[in-house]
Amino acid sequence: METARTGVKPSDLDILLALYGVAEDDTEKRGVLHALARDGARRGWWQTYADTISPAYADLIGLEAQAKSVRTWQTTLIPGLLQTAAYARATIDAINMTTPPDRVNALVEVRTARQSILTRPDPPELWAIIHEVALRPQLGDTHVMREQLQRLLDVTTLPHVSVQVLPLTASPHPGMSGPFTLLGFPESADLDIAHVEDLTNALYVEDPVEVAIYGAAFERLRAAALPFDKTTDLIAQLKDSP
Q1: pTM, entire model
Q2: Is residue 127 within 8 Å of residue 222, measured between CB atoms?
Q3: Beta bridge partners of residue 166, listed in sequence order
Q4: pLDDT tens readout for residues 182-230
Q5: What 8-state DSSP symbol labels residue 29?
Q6: Mutual orientation of helices 27-40 and 55-66 as an angle, nearest 10°?
Q7: 54-240 — its CATH code?
Q8: Contact assessment for residue 74 and residue 131, using Cβ atoms and an 8 Å cutoff
Q9: pLDDT for residue 1 is more than 90
Q10: CB contact set of 17 (below 8 Å; sequence gap of 6+)
Q11: What is the domain partition of the chain in residue ranges?
């Protein structure tokens, strides 16, 4: 079970819940965990890319598919759930450096397929805060970035998607420590997870106290970021600039 080679049977889960002190009358938490165990036994589309993506990346995709809310702070990149295929290809190729073209193609397919959660009947609430720095790189020809900026403008019309830009003029803030994503499971708040990623590793923070720190940091970033109308004005200005 710990290596994800087999799922968790309901009887085993009940024993584990008792071991870890989850009260029998805590029906809400027990129900959520039993639902996750059932869903975990299902085969996700991303498992067909097992030879291409890391186990940590597969975990992220699976968690996104289950989450009711996704709050993400990005410093130098457009969030993966909002990237165009051309932008994804340019950034994957640059970050992975020595990845062969066929694997880059597969990673682009995975990244664009992840975005299907935003158009399903019960999409998660996505709130993305993006540093202005991420809106300015020129990737290949100017068309790539203009298409990406238009994509950001398009998704802001979706009722469950919110996008804010943190301007270059912002005061020092907790997001200076790096990007992170919060995955929310509102049936039980202490099941929320923070995802932190760097060039070679991914970390999942599950301790409720530590997750709450990330949540507080996100709220500060949200307060410091441009309001929605000024965000779209800035994105449109950058898109149309020479």
Answers
A1: 0.83
A2: yes
A3: 131
A4: 999 866 556 899 999 887 788 999 999 999 999 999 999 999 999 999 9
A5: H
A6: 130
A7: 3.30.870
A8: yes
A9: no
A10: 30, 33
A11: 1-42, 54-240
